[in-house]
Amino acid sequence: MKTQNQIKRTLTQPEAIEHIIDILDTNADINRSTLADKLCDYFNFFDPRGNRQRSGCLKALRKLEQASHFTLPFPKQKSCHRKPQRLAQPVSAPLKVPADASEIGELRLNIVQTQQEMRIWNELMIQDHPRGAGPLVGRQLRYLIQSEHGWLGGISFSSAALHLADRDKWIGWDWEKRQENLDKIVNMSRFLIRSCISCKNLASRVLGLAIKQFPGDFAKRYNHRPLLVESFVDTSHYRGTCYKAANWLWIGRTKGRGRQDVLKKQEETVKDIYVYPLEQDFRIKMGLTEHSGLGALDIYSGIDRDNWAENELGNAALGDKRLSNRLVEIARKQALNPCCSYSGAAGGDWPEVKAYYRFIEQPDDSAVTMENILLPHREQTIRRMKSERVVLCIQDGSDLNYNNLDQCVNLGVIGSNQTGAKSRGLHLHSMLATTTEGIPLGVLRSECTAPQPKSQDDDRPASAIPIEEKKTFSWLEGVRDCQALKQLMPHTSLINISDREADFFAMFDDQRSNSPDVNLIVRAKHDRATTGEYRLFETARQAPVQARIEIKIPRQSARSKKSKQKERAKRAARTAQVSVRSAQVELNPPPYHKDKDPVVIGIVHVKEDVPPAGEKAIEWFLLTTIALESVDDVLNCVKWYCRRWRIEDWHRVLKSGCKAEELANKTAERLKRAVAIKLVIAWRIMLMTLLGRETPELPAEVMFSDLELKVLSAWSKKKLTPLQCHSELR
Hints:
With 730 residues, the protein is α+β, with helices and mostly antiparallel strands. Among the domains are: 7-66, no CATH class; 101-285, Gcn5-related N-acetyltransferase (GNAT) (Aminopeptidase). The chain has 23 helices and 17 strands. The protein has helices at 7-11, 14-26, 32-43, 54-66, 115-128, 165-171, 175-181, 202-222, 241-245, 282-285, 308-313, 321-336, 342-345, 350-360, 370-386, 473-486, 505-514, 536-542, 631-642, 645-657, 668-694, 706-719, 722-729; strands at 108-111, 141-147, 150-159, 185-193, 228-234, 249-253, 271-277, 390-401, 412-416, 422-434, 440-449, 493-498, 519-523, 545-553, 574-587, 599-608, 619-624. Strands 8, 9, 10, 11, 12, 13, 14, 15, 16 and 17 form a ten-stranded mixed β-sheet that branches. Strands 1-2-3-4-5-7-6 form a seven-stranded mixed β-sheet, with helices on both faces. Helix 20 packs across helix 21 (668-694). The longest helix is centred in the last third of the chain and has 27 residues, at 668-694. The radius of gyration is 32 Å and the shape is globular. It starts with 6 loop residues before the first helix and ends with a helix. 31% of the residues are buried.
């Protein structure tokens, strides 16, 4: 596809300016339009229909005149904004519009072509649209929404916004690519359903009709087919529900600047940005790669051995591009030898080792933070989530013990033994995104904190301490983060899964108030009072059995008793036969939340029927906000909760495989930077392992280099019997 003409850039070149001056000097009587036509012919400024781009050329000439490059001929006419042509009276109200769009007869979009249709369109916009009838800019199309009941509203399409930070980041183009391809985006500049109409689903249905019809009409009129449509929603007046229902994507917000806001006064309201890709491979057609921007990404894309570090950590906002490049190189080398220190992973290359420590030892107030290091990986994780119908967002915490680092400052207290001796370290709270089959999509958020004991001077009861000051607030932040992400993926269901530490009333109360689009599955810890006859656990036990299934119980290592931690016996992995029940209950608020309403929630009870000799029967009580309308809904809750162990596997890879607790740095902030890199490496190690199990047909070249494949092939042939080798070769 032909790229957009760069008129202003071309005319600002020194040789072009000399050419313009020469024309002006040798043609004393030339007018501006003739000058623009000559330049269009000379520099080949023609649109896809073969017409001269006179208006664009005139605009560039005025800019150059303002920059004192030359003086243009005095304009023959003063420019003035013409008032839109209107009807003599308001447009008649539609008659007998039904309550649902499915009942509207002869609903269609009528392209505005005649002067009378233009008057009707203008009148509708002036009557009802907050921005009136215009003027619109660039290539334009207008439609009237017609039906057997009368005129229902109107739509218009015109040139895209010149600069939109969130849109440009989502597309993934730079300044050069935006200049070349901006004409491939069209802005839906007006969308009106008349205020006198109340008809369910009408707006989303009209949007669907527009997306089907307008690309062909636009190509017919301008000989140029757009690839992407954008639109803005003023959230002070509208919620954008119809856009979501019509499969448009929310990608961010404007900055409050209009098209002509050269002084950056930001006098416009901030608006939500919605886009609709007309071609799924629009990035490739714009000359970008499929991995550019923030669109949906296949789980197998970009994880190959050569490019994964650049894809997951490249362009981190660390204040200096060289630091971003160093981060990618550190991750790439450390991933090749995750068990080694960085000096071992670098093969003793002293300049590389020094560069690593310069990176890790940046000032504590620098932009090299755990959050900024993980941000590119988070964005890639979000893109992988967009490709899934259901995503499990699993939260959990784990302690990183650095008690041996006597000289390390700013560590916290992560525990104490029976003698009262305190262990120093960091508490890691993370949220891992996985598919419903447990394939890890990436780390959505992770924060290391240095827990401090409650001050002896703080005599506030627990109920008087704000939730923001409590350790449990991390769980609420995770759920709220999921709610924010839900806007980016309206067609993906997000299920937030937590273990018993997240079983507190504020978790469920906050979800219904702040995160209603995100469902919870939390293993119950407290046998609460309900509004019914029995307490919570007994209510679940009294429910009828809905299914009997097998679940795999992972192994559990033994844990000795500590001052605030119970002893835990060792448990071997096994497959358990369990009965599944479910019920709906109302949980009463605790005494210090008397002003809150009871929480209506579902509970799923899982009980092992006949445990092995000497083993305690498995019994879970799972609280969930998922509507348990069928047995499948209940079994999905059990299945998805079983995926919670993925985050524990990830913690095991982080500590055992990547040796995160063997780091040795002098400050907690430096430890966090090193841990952040290892978090992403641990994710990739686990992903490689699980992809090998879940998708054995995946080509080995995705993960391994040619040399590694030769080594593995030689090793496997050495280990296999001749008969097995013959079978493998076949």
